[in-house]
Amino acid sequence: MNPGGIDLEKTVMRILVRDPERYADREIEVSGWVRGNRDQKAFGFLAINDGTHFNPLQVVYDQGNVSSFEEVSRLRVGAAVTVRGKFLVTPDAKQPFEIIAHEIVLEGDAPEDYPIQPKRHTREFLREVAHLRPRTNLFSAVFRIRSLAAYAVHEFFQERGFVYIHSPIITASDAEGAGELFRVTTLPAQKPPVNEQGEVDFSQDFFGRKANLTVSGQLEAEAFALAFRDVYTFGPTFRAENSNTPRHAAEFWMIEPEIAFADLQDDMDLAEQMIKSVIGKIMALAPEEMEFFFKFVDKGLEVRLRTILEQDFARVTYTNAIEILEKAKAQFEYPVAWGNDLQTEHERYLTEQVFHKPVFVTDYPRDIKAFYMRQNDDGKTVAAMDLLVPGVGELIGGSQREERAELLEQRMKETNINRDELWWYLELRKYGGVKHAGFGVGFERLIMYLTGVGNIRDVIPFPRTVNSCEF
RNA sequence: UCCUCGAUAGCUCAAUGGUAGAGCAACCGGCUGUUAACCGGUAGGUUGUAGGUUCGAGUCCUACUCGAGGAGCCA
Length: 471
Known about the structure:
The chain is of the alpha+beta class. The chain has helices spanning 13-18, 20-23, 69-73, 123-128, 137-159, 218-228, 264-285, 287-297, 301-310, 318-327, 344-354, 405-414, 423-430, 443-451, and strands at 8-10, 27-39, 43-49, 57-62, 80-89, 97-108, 163-164, 170-171, 212-213, 230-238, 251-260, 314-317, 359-362, 384-389, 393-400, 436-442. The protein has three domains: 8-108, CATH 2.40.50.140; 133-169 and 215-458, BirA Bifunctional Protein, domain 2; 180-213, no CATH class.
């Protein structure tokens, strides 16, 4: 009850959409930001979005009903308002319902230089106003999907009894060989302490040794998999690579499950189930947002996602993939030869031209893969898998891990991995070591795949890339 | 890091080496159910920065800055 004695209920769009009939002809109060204002001589229409639902709410304001009519008719896009009025279900109109206002209060004005207009903006421009872009349709949809996808990922693993591990953000290990590292230090940038050789003396640093931001939680996850059996990490990851592409960021999130008593086949089964589960949940949880992507972002997206849900992913060994590529009529810029890593053009050809769906490529040559991957009996390949998907490229990379201590040590020696730093990783093999496997999913690449948005900078709220750390 | 392309009004884009324009947004006005509303009008510019060629440069040349796409690296 408000002071005026009218039965008035504060509500939000999410609730109204769920059960409009419950509110029919009742007095309600809704607050939101103006998305559009179409004023006429004696009445007008306000589209307001309160952030709780993708679609805006239509507010009808009439000179006879609203005392601040003149002020309301001049409201600009971006202003924040509170509206009180009668809720009306309008089954025959373009919008499912509207509110007939009797009071509209300006909560926060938006001056005429508000950069977001009710028109199409380029993504490049919107990146420059990343603090305002979540108020647009596209980014409203992207970031709600991002939130729901994170939820769906957790739900998938939790339903299966996986234990969520918070792997460290700061690590002392720089031996994982997964790209350039961000140094974490409290040493002064000017004149840091030096040792007798004239090198920076990291023994005087905060941790008494070199420390970096993590590039992967995998090694720590392996330790927990050998205690809990099924675990996953889901957290931020940092790469200081000087790579400027629509698929790379310096700070991104990774999902890394790790499963014990499991081999590469189990690993691929898990990856496939996870992708399908997340897609299915997102389509069920955010139909308005997905419809927007299908219609305005990527015309082929709907068919692609539905195909994934209905069909098994393809699986092909690296060796067979090379044979397919060698027989291909397509002209490749880079030569195809056993022992060479697959180039982007080769991966795209396989997933987009040969299989037309996600494909696992397995059993890569030992020499082009990481030291921890399990060696196959042929002595040439390792039990690795990459999941290639149309449009995005490499979405998942994983492997069965080398559980045999002597073979692991031998590979570390061959690839110049510092044995002393990873003593604990070797002990995992010494004490109750068993076969186990895992993979890493680039969370942003998953979002790109789900939404059809082609640039990683547009699926991260405030993206960090080379030479760019605004906001 | 390499290759290619680009930078003109707040936004999206035009403009043979010869007076910088349009649509949208903004502002003013019109319109009794609009929904990317519609109609009329007004205002808005050191053409990314610094040099150079030329009688004359948004346009040609050089360097730089920023952005995008492709490649490498990877998730």
